[in-house]
Amino acid sequence: MSSDISAFPLLPARVHEACGPLAIGLAAVAAADAGDVLWIRESWQLQNASIGGLSAYIDPSRLLLAQTKKQAETLAVAEETLRDGRVPLVVMELTAPLGLTAGRRLQLAAKAGHSTGLCLIPEGMGSPAAETRWHISPLPDPASAAEDSTLQRWALIKNKSGTLGIWHVRWSQSARRLIVVSKARE
User: Fold this and answer.
1) pLDDT the model gives residue 104
2) Helix (H) or strand (E) holding 70
3) Of the four, 77, 79, 138, 146, which is 20 to 30 A from 98 by CA?
């Protein structure tokens, strides 16, 4: 396990993916550094990205939540926003596999607008066009009660620009940044 996460923050002008039970955590940490964020999801989904929960990471006035009827609309809104470039981070909650063509269109739009895209995907539904794919999960940690947040395992499982890796991290609310937990701490 490395002492730093060389693949984070996410490369700009690219689209990335996150899966796993705490994938929303990667999106929240990315949003903390991004400034303005557009978060797109299908309106029929039962779980909502909680503004209250995200406020630990980002000022709610910098977060725009958009709801669409189906994934095709989510992708269209994301593509146009990425291409426009006025919003530095576009988070998409996807519910179905993203094909190579749709993934490539998002990559071209992100490159054109120099914006970053992050697809929150179900396990096993990654796109071959993704720059990176992360699996984010909780780690049991008996000492976490005294910490700011839950210990997490961030595994970089796909990386077109470098190596793969696994890091144990936690969000420090007081420092408002991601902390890589050292091996000595483990």
Assistant:
1) 97
2) none
3) 138
pLDDT in tens, 102-112: 999 999 999 99
CA distance 2 to 124: 25
Name which of 12-21, 45-54, 95-104, 130-139 the model is least confident about.
Answer: 45-54
Element containing residue 101 per DSSP (H, E): helix 100-113
50 secondary structure, DSSP code: -
**pTM to 2 decimals?**
0.89
Write the CA distances from 60 to 37, 63, 72, 126, integer angstroms. Answer: 10, 5, 26, 29
The structure tokens listed for 36 are 């303005």
The CATH homologous superfamily to which domain 15-180 belongs is P-loop containing nucleotide triphosphate hydrolases (3.40.50.300)
Instruction: Find out whether 82 and 102 touch, Cβ atoms under 8 Å.
Output: no
Token code pair at residue 73: 């609309």
